[in-house]
């Protein structure tokens, strides 16, 4: 008989499961997938993905009609305040939100809708040069990442959006992006992002997304 016996899984009842999931989501304060829950706080319990999903759905019903809701976003779940309360909650945020130039948002939009793309692809679509600082800023913000290299001379990096991008903009998947022809939906998508008309980043003299951004999150 092997000296290393497989650890026996603990049992957990439905109420305890809901409590543990609820507490975990509050503590983490970010989007968490069922897989992540199962491999972390629930790793020692005998519980299936189906039961976890059922517990989450019950929690979603429990929070209906309240100031906080449990939403499905970016392949996971998170608690967030309901949109109707957003204007009244603004005074609670002491830190000033970072500003994003129009060029930065346009670069992000090109990557989101045409990914994976190279910097040259972005410049072709926008018709102007894209500064290295813009790419770095979006990467530091963890909205984009390098997913490979294009098999052409120089092997330029290919960029794509991340799950953090989906989570920030409240999207479950890329297919939920509004059509490019839907101007109102596109404006609504970026409405929660501070924008600036500053175009200095095109010349590389100054980028609106600067090193201060990482301290303003």
Automatic annotation (TrEMBL):
Polar residues bias (residue ranges): 206-217
Residue ranges crossing the lipid bilayer per the database entry: none
InterPro entries membership: ScpB_csome_segregation, WH-like_DNA-bd_sf, WH_DNA-bd_sf
One Gene Ontology term from the biological process aspect of the record: cell division
Keyword hit for Oxidoreductase: no
Record Pfam families: SMC_ScpB
Top-level taxon of the source organism: Bacteria
NCBIfam families on file: SMC-Scp complex subunit ScpB (TIGR00281)
Protein name per its UniProtKB record: Condensin subunit ScpB
